[in-house]
Design goal:
By secondary structure, the chain is of the alpha/beta class. It has 3 domains: 206 residues, no CATH class; 170 residues, Rossmann fold, CATH 3.40.50; 87 residues, Orthogonal Bundle (Helicase, Ruva Protein, domain 3). 43% of the residues lie in helices and 19% in strands. It has 17 helices and 14 strands. The strands form 3 sheets. It has a 6-stranded antiparallel sheet. Strands 11-12-13-10-14 form a 5-stranded parallel sheet, sandwiched between helices. A 3-stranded mixed sheet has the order 1-2-9, with helices on one face. Strand 11, helix 11 and strand 12 form a beta-alpha-beta unit. Helix 8 packs parallel to helix 10, helix 11 packs parallel to helix 12 and helix 16 crosses helix 17. About 9% of the residues have low confidence. The chain binds adenosine-5'-diphosphate and magnesium ion. The site of magnesium ion has 4 residues, from helix 10.
Length: 483
């Protein structure tokens, strides 16, 4: 089950809170590690674990917010020097002084930190400094959760910690903890009505050893043999994740990416992996499906896609896969069908312009196996400002693809007592023999060996050798022989 809510402009989703809590009894569960936040917040970690206390076993919710003191605005730095290096106290003080309603609301739940903040502003008679508590409390009344907030003086590290007796812990406690954490984060950010606007945080166990993570959650690390392309996509992801840096320098991040290359070289995979790297939602539009046999149908379809896209509130990667089928020279003749295709291409160009103006949360990727078919004017219009060639892998690339796929399969399927691959595979030889094959072909070669082994296993009742060099080389030869 997924619980979602909005906080400070961000959409937050908590996936399977009950499972997270159950898993935390056995091993600490780390959450939000890949989430990104505006500066000065550099990173956030939330860990749910289990501990034994004199009062009995508890669930511990512990969070760390790493900040860069150097990124605090100039005035804040001076204030921090004057008031002590206390990110929570300093920023709260500033916001209370400004009459900020959120800060005032926090004050009601916070108690001590507010008292300290008031003191710093001279709004209250300073008491005995030695008695001034170092720990603040953030509380969520609804769930009955209290988190102690501490900070390392001198460093930019803020910590939150809450404990709930194991017998009483409920999913609402996790939700409350995430809220309090975001509340603390929001307090550290420059003042704004929605300091986390447009962001999306998914609180989920990231290390689940399920097949889903290996197939759906494709990452750039899984891509073999395309080091330059991967490096370029990582750069694009950084620019997307840091709109504030782009704005500061008046720079524009890439908005449209065209990937082209032979079938099976990983273009669709790279698009998914890029969405993952950005932390964006992924929406795939299979362009053959846009084409409608009815007059005007394709135009309506494409307009609808863009109308939806203008409304996405969370970062979204929109993929037009096998894009050439709509924006194609193939229809450059004078017949009715070609004219229809040209009309669609025209609408596409117009919509693409509008979308990028209207919704900076969207990045568009288009892929094609036939770059020469894609209408030049679409590229020249400047909307696809990055063009990436995705070639077939060379020998080293193929060996790397074998290595990564084999490692992934072993990680997904091997368990105590079951070895999937022999230990002495010669990847160099596999790379050499598979001349002309793409990543998709290599996957197919492996798939055939897996199937053969599984069938043998089914017939013999489990007496099967692990996949060895001979199995792989003969699968490669078979596949190449069929060409
Ligand atoms: N360079 C690569 N590294 C790792 N796997 C690859 C690579 N290229 C292709 N694959 C595998 O082949 C599958 C099909 O590739 P795909 O992305 O659909 O290719 P394309 O979109 O270029 O036709 C991918 O899901 C992936 O498993
Ligand atoms: Mg594809």
């Amino acid at each position: 089950m997924t619980v979602s809510f909005e906080y400070a402009g961000a959409t937050v989703e908590i996936v399977e809170a009950g499972t997270i809590l159950a898993a935390a009894r056995v091993n600490p569960v780390e959450l939000l590690r890949r989430a990104t936040f505006p500066p000065p917040v550099r990173r956030v970690e939330l860990t749910v674990s289990s501990a034994d206390t004199p009062a009995g076993p508890v669930h511990v919710f512990a969070a760390e917010i790493g900040t860069t003191a150097a990124d605090l605005p100039h005035k804040e730095r001076i204030r921090a020097v004057v008031l002590g290096n206390d990110p929570v106290g300093t920023l709260l003080a500033r916001r209370i002084a400004a009459g900020d309603p959120i800060a005032t609301r926090i004050v009601d739940g916070v108690g001590t930190v507010a008292v300290a903040a008031y003191r710093k502003l001279g709004l209250d008679r300073p008491g005995d400094p030695a008695a001034e508590p170092q720990t603040a409390v953030l509380a969520d009344a609804a769930a009955g959760l209290q988190a102690a907030v501490t900070h390392e003086s001198g460093g930019g590290l803020v910590r939150l910690r809450a404990e709930v007796p194991r017998d009483e812990v409920r999913p609402e406690h996790l939700t409350a903890m995430v809220r309090l954490l975001l509340q603390a984060v929001a307090e550290l950010l420059p003042p704004s009505a929605e300091p986390l606007a447009g962001r999306r945080y998914v609180v989920t166990r990231e290390n689940l050893p399920t097949v889903a993570t290996t197939t759906r959650e494709v990452t750039l690390d899984q891509v073999g043999g395309l080091a330059d392309v991967v490096a370029q996509l990582r750069q694009i992801a950084v620019s997307f994740r840091h709109p504030e840096a782009m704005a500061r320098w008046g720079a524009r991040r890439p908005q449209g990416i065209l990937m082209y290359g032979p079938p099976g070289t990983g273009k669709t995979m790279l698009s998914r992996a890029l969405a993952n790297e950005i932390g964006a939602d992924f929406r795939e539009i299979r362009t053959p499906e846009i084409l409608d046999k009815w007059l005007g149908g394709s135009e309506r379809n494409i307009k609808q896609i863009f109308r939806d896209a203008r409304r996405y509130r969370v970062p979204t990667l929109l993929l037009f896969d096998e894009f050439d089928s709509i924006i194609s020279y193939a229809g450059a003749g004078g017949d009715a069908a070609s004219q229809a295709i040209n009309a669609v291409a025209g609408i596409f160009k117009q919509e693409m312009n509008d979308l990028i103006e209207a919704n900076p949360a969207v990045i568009v990727v288009a892929t094609t196996n036939f770059p020469h078919r894609v209408d030049d004017s679409l590229i020249r219009s400047g909307r696809f400002d990055v063009k990436i060639s995705v070639p077939k892998p060379d020998e080293t690339g193929r060996a790397e693809i074998f290595r990564k796929m084999i490692a992934q399969l072993a990680a997904a399927h091997e368990e105590p007592g079951f070895t999937m691959f022999a230990g002495d595979l010669d990847l160099g030889e596999l790379g050499r023999l598979s001349h002309g094959m793409t990543g998709a072909d290599i996957k197919e070669a492996l798939r055939r060996v897996q199937l053969a082994k599984a069938m043998q296993d089914a017939r013999t009742g489990g007496v099967v050798d692990p996949i060895g060099q001979r199995d792989l080389t003969s699968s490669i030869r078979d596949l190449l022989g069929q060409r």
